TrEMBL record:
Pfam families the UniProt entry points to: F420_ligase
Domain of life of the organism encoding this protein: Archaea
GO molecular-function term, one example from the UniProt record: coenzyme F420-0:L-glutamate ligase activity
Name of the protein: Coenzyme F420-0:L-glutamate ligase
UniProt domain Coenzyme F420:L-glutamate ligase-like: residue ranges: 9-219
Keywords: Ligase
Source species of the chain: Conexivisphaera calida
Keyword Kinase on entry: no
Presence of the UniProt keyword Ligase in the record: yes
Length: 252
């Protein structure tokens, strides 16, 4: 769904704002469809904008900023928004958040109003619930909501979509124990349904000047569960992560 002009200011109620934008565009969600919405759009709607004024950089941020060639106040915010600081490269601060490893803790200056940076959404799973409740009134039935951001994958060029949060849709499906086509039982496989939906929607939402912060995805009727979800459904600690464990064991 294209918008006429970029969102630059906070709104009082994100769910009501999203519903009004859909009504204005004439794109109405039908029961058992999934709305994918840009995390940056949600964050701007929440007023999550950053300017260097009013932020005091602590000692760790000043030290890291000096090594990375970054603004200390920006690094301070990146550290505040992270679970774990992992390092820096090419002037980018690498951290871990609930949605995975992130550059600059998902703080982004691209497509940001007024030259400021935009912080990641606050309370993303709760916000996904609030958007879903409004949309279900429009649709007259259950819908799913995915708040999506983009990420780069190790050793891969380009970005893919990832679900920052979701509501009303099965985000992760445990397929351990299910047989493969030759009857062998899967031992470790989970399917990241919400991430797959986010990545599919980003084909049309884009990364630059598309002005398309939302997309409706159909054909996922069997994945709509009408339920609220939690961040711990998707997050695994570094000790549980395949890549982190491999790096730790190789270094040990």
């Amino acid at each position: 769904m294209r918008v006429r002009e970029p969102l630059t200011t906070a709104v009082g109620d994100v769910g009501s704002h999203v519903a009004s934008q859909l009504l204005e565009s004439g794109v109405m969600p039908r029961p058992r469809t999934v709305l994918v919405i840009s995390s940056k759009y949600v964050a701007i709607a929440q007023g999550r904008r950053y300017g260097p004024e009013g932020t005091i950089a602590m000692e760790d941020a000043v030290r890291i900023a000096g090594a990375a060639g970054q603004q200390p106040e920006f690094v301070e915010l990146a550290l505040r928004e992270s679970l774990v600081f992992l390092g820096h490269a090419l002037g980018i601060i690498i951290t871990a958040r609930r949605e995975g490893v992130t550059p600059n803790s998902s703080i982004d200056r691209s497509n940001a109003p007024g030259g400021v940076a935009v912080l990641p959404p606050a309370r993303p799973f709760q916000t996904a619930d609030e958007i879903r409740w409004k949309l279900e009134g429009l649709a007259g039935g259950p819908v799913g909501v995915v708040i999506a951001d983009s990420r780069v994958l190790p050793l891969r060029r380009g970005t893919v979509g990832v679900a920052v949060a979701y509501s009303g849709i099965e985000g992760v499906v445990d397929e351990r124990g299910a047989p493969d086509i030759f009857g062998r039982r899967l031992r470790h496989t989970y399917r990241a349904i919400a991430d797959e939906v986010a990545s599919a929607a980003e084909i049309v939402m884009g990364e630059s000047g598309e002005m398309t912060p939302m997309a409706l995805v159909e054909g996922l009727e069997d994945r709509i569960d009408g339920a609220s979800h939690r961040p711990d459904e998707t997050y695994v600690s570094p000790s549980e992560c395949l890549y982190f464990r491999a790096f730790a064991e190789a270094g040990g």
